[in-house]
Design brief:
Helices cover 49% and strands 17% of the residues. It has eleven helices and eight strands. A four-stranded mixed β-sheet has the order 1-4-3-2, covered by helices on one side. A hairpin with a 3-residue loop joins strand 2 and strand 3. It starts with 7 loop residues before the first strand and ends with a helix.
Length: 259
């Protein structure tokens, strides 16, 4: 047995009026109910988002078990990939700052904050279609399809078939040599296969090809941090942070890493 889907999830906010305005007016969710001085219920597709004030929900001896949290939470909403640019424009027009944009292997995400400081993400949903059978079918019909080799490699490394995974990912890179996503995954799979020096060479090639892409510097930084090569990690931390944060924040982060 396994759960079929997430029915509801919860974020916390002490200013429920501000939360209601944000999720209904900015994100366009339908308000289903208000729980006086306690929380809000929004509909999103066939799921439910609850926004609770954590102070009353922590009180003991309630009908449902007590709950509550301090600090920012996180939620991700699925939107069509072709609407992400329009969402960015809409949010900025409403005075909502885009905190970060990240290109994942399966698509792009944009991140911003709600009035309570919770991290909100919009992203293309996972298709769920790239299983082993689908990859093999795609490769049989179109052997030159880089994305199929890419996803098949990820499936193979998850099955512990490291050598085959490397071979498939290298083939994906041959077919699409300038893809930063495929390039990053070549490094990740080489790392996961224990081929550290090859992974390092791959990452350095990526830096030369994509010197201003934060994800490239992030993965190189993580590559060096695993064996605690802090001196080698710091320049990439600075480059990653400099693309996303102010120079002063980048400097503090790098100094903190060296402490």
């Amino acid at each position: 047995m396994e759960p079929r889907r997430i029915f509801e999830t919860c974020l916390y906010a002490t200013d429920l009026a501000a939360a209601e305005r944000f999720y209904s007016e900015v994100l366009g969710l339908k308000l289903a109910s208000r729980m006086k001085d306690r929380g809000l219920t929004f509909r999103c597709g066939d799921g439910v988002l609850l926004i609770f004030d954590p102070r009353p929900t922590r009180e003991p001896h309630q009908l449902v078990p007590s709950h509550g949290a301090d600090g920012p939470g996180h939620i991700a909403f699925a939107v069509p990939a072709e609407e992400l640019d329009a969402w960015s424009e809409h949010l900025e027009a409403r005075g909502v700052q885009i905190e970060r944009e990240i290109d994942w292997s399966e698509g792009r995400s944009i991140y911003f904050r709600d009035p309570a400081g919770n991290s909100v993400e919009l992203r293309r949903p996972h298709s769920g279609e790239w299983d082993s059978k689908t990859c093999k079918t795609a490769l049989r019909l179109s052997p030159g399809y880089a994305t199929a080799h890419h996803w098949y490699a990820i499936l193979l490394i998850g099955q512990g078939r490291a050598d085959e995974a490397v071979q498939e990912m290298m083939r994906a890179q041959e077919l699409d040599p300038i893809s930063r996503i495929i390039g990053v995954w070549v490094g990740l799979i080489l790392d996961a296969s224990g081929r550290t020096e090859e992974a390092r060479e791959q990452y350095q090639n990526l830096v030369a090809l994509h010197p201003k892409v934060p994800r490239v510097h992030l993965e190189i930084m993580m590559h060096y941090l695993r064996p605690q090569d802090f001196e080698l990690a710091v320049p990439h931390l600075e480059r990653w942070a400099a693309e996303l944060l102010s120079a002063e924040v980048a400097r503090r982060w790098s100094e903190g890493l060296l402490l």
